[in-house]
Amino acid sequence: TKVTEFISQANGKTLFSIEIIPPVKGQNINELFDSIEPLMEYKPPFIDVTYHREELIDRVGTNGLIERIPVRKRPGTVGICARLMERFHVDAVPHVICGGFTREETEDVLFDLHYLGIDNVLVLRGDPEKSAGVFQAKKGGHTYASELVTQVHNMNNGILLNAETETAPTNFCIGVAGYPEKHFDATSFDTDYEHLRRKVELGANYIVTQMFFDNQKYFSFVERCRAEGITVPIIPGLKPLATKKQLSVLASIFHLEFPEDLVKAAMQCASDKDVRQVGIEWGVQQCRELLAYGVPVLHFYTMGKSDNVAQIAKQVF
Ligand code: FAD
């Protein structure tokens, strides 16, 4: 089922969903599944699974010299999607990224997903490699998410990259990312909205936002999107604050501002256990307001631990 169909079938009722991150290579996948099991009570119709690019690491080669090799720290997105659907009877929404892939490699991954019966993909550019600082496409790969949206849209119309024969079309529902606090690479809010609108014009069916802690940022974002003629559903992405350190780490990784009241409440806490509680209370308030606004889905970034998401869901659904 397509994400947009879940939304329209809900008839205005807000849905619950989550994003999970593949474990570090070699770790037990069942631990991840066990950790999200309690969230199934809130009936997520779909679960997102992130995709991670390879990063260059230094290692000592057989000749004793240091060599740089690309290593994917968190592989397994496609396999995790298959297991998720089997174990929880939910739709899996794999993320598909431009970074580190040629167009042909991407086409192959999209066929894996299609053959698994996956109906949705969240199409992203991917972050820059840590060692590079700025995003660089792989030779033969896409530079912007909009190009990957076009590739998926073409596949949905039976158009492949180098096919000699006519092909059966795929039928992916396409999600893309939006940034209520502006994407860090964008020179201005105006150009960022322009690029977002372009992704929708090229075939994106819905938007999921970067996390935000101040609902006003989301409300302004939705208003501006509507003014730009973007009519697709805009799903708010949410992450409960869990530690004091996240105040600086999340702000710098995701380029967001924390509201003063939340910072103050967290800084007054004696321990991170108390910060976690503050994060839950803040999340509950945020969700209640978003529910009243009529958002289609409350979509949570679990980032490994999900007890706090369960506590929020328990209070708002
Ligand atoms: P784009 O839409 O391509 O935009 C990137 C930047 O380029 C923006 O500043 C945009 O304004 C600008 N731009 C776009 N088009 C043009 C153009 N034609 N000319 C000039 N500038 C242009 N990363 C992962 O690696 N794996 C994941 O699984 C993942 N999941 C995510 C899920 C969500 C909901 C979100 C919000 C982000 C996720 N990310 C993930 C992070 C994402 O890959 C980064 O934020 C990345 O830096 C941008 O991706 P994008 O798809 O928004 O890029």
TrEMBL record:
Keywords: Amino-acid biosynthesis, FAD, Flavoprotein, Methionine biosynthesis, NAD, Oxidoreductase. Pfam families: MTHFR (PF02219). Its cofactor is FAD. One of its GO terms (molecular function) is FAD binding. InterPro entries: FAD-linked_oxidoreductase-like (IPR029041), Mehydrof_redctse-like (IPR003171), MTHF_reductase_bac (IPR004620). GO terms for cellular component: cytosol. It catalyses: (6S)-5-methyl-5,6,7,8-tetrahydrofolate + NAD(+) = (6R)-5,10-methylene-5,6,7,8-tetrahydrofolate + NADH + H(+). The keyword Secreted does not apply. It is an enzyme of class 1 (oxidoreductase). Gene3D superfamilies: 3.20.20.220. The keyword Disulfide bond does not apply. Pathway: Amino-acid biosynthesis; L-methionine biosynthesis via de novo pathway; One-carbon metabolism; tetrahydrofolate interconversion. GO terms for biological process: methionine biosynthetic process; tetrahydrofolate interconversion. Transmembrane segments: none annotated. Its EC number is 1.5.1.54. PANTHER family: METHYLENETETRAHYDROFOLATE REDUCTASE (PTHR45754), METHYLENETETRAHYDROFOLATE REDUCTASE (NADPH) (PTHR45754:SF3). Belongs to the methylenetetrahydrofolate reductase family. This is Methylenetetrahydrofolate reductase. It comes from Dyadobacter psychrotolerans. The gene is metF.
